[in-house]
Amino acid sequence: MTLTSPQKEANPAPVGLAGFAVTQFVYSLFIAGVGDIKIMNIGLGLAFFNGGLLQLLTGMWEMYNGNTFGATVFSSYAGFWLSFSFIFFPFTGVNEAYKMAPDQYQNALGVFLMAWALFLTAFIAWYLAMSQLLTKETGYFTLPVGDRSGKQV
Fold first, then answer.
1. Which residues, other chains included, contact 28 with Cβ-Cβ below 8 Å and sequence gap of 6+?
2. What does 104-148 look like in DSSP terms, one character per residue?
3. Global pTM value
4. Which value, in Å, is the radius of gyration of the alpha carbons in the chain?
5. Are 83 and 109 contacting, i.e. CB atoms less than 8 angstroms apart?
6. If you ran DSSP here, which 8-state letter would residue 36 be given?
7. Cα 103 to Cα 24: distance, rounded to the nearest angstrom
């Protein structure tokens, strides 16, 4: 008698999380001014391949495994890192376009990052709702204003 086990797909999430964590850590150090680094182009390969391409592949593997949340999160973060690295690639001309108006560059980059921060907030709310931490009765968003439903608890 031969015992065989069904083939099981591996969980791609650790690969995607590692890609995100390393890329985020390096760029956070750049932005914090560690080492007095002003030109962040050394991290472009990391942002494009590790933060972007690797997470895109992870998102597609999550989709294949039927994990909609994982597919959405990893694919979206891939989009963030690919578009963020695109800003700094010299051939795109994005940085060159703002040479004469550096304040406009800072404002535009701020809008870009703020949009992603709002997107991240939506993912957090989605996760809390999926994990039953965000309900109508014990909702994260109702805590500051209290329960106004009139129900007796």
1. none
2. HHHHHHHHHHHHHHHHHHHHHHHHHHHTTSS-SSS-TTTTTT---
3. 0.74
4. 21
5. no
6. G
7. 25
First to last CA, the chain: 60
Average pLDDT per run of 10 along the chain, which is 153 residues long? Answer: 67 91 91 84 90 94 90 92 90 90 90 90 76 57 51 52
Predicted pLDDT of residue 136:
56
DSSP string, 4-28: ---------HHHHHHHHHHHHHHHH
Cα separation, 30 vs 41, whole angstroms: 10
Dmax over Cα atoms in the chain, in whole Å?
76
Length of the chain: 153
Helix, strand or coil, per DSSP, at residue 89 = coil
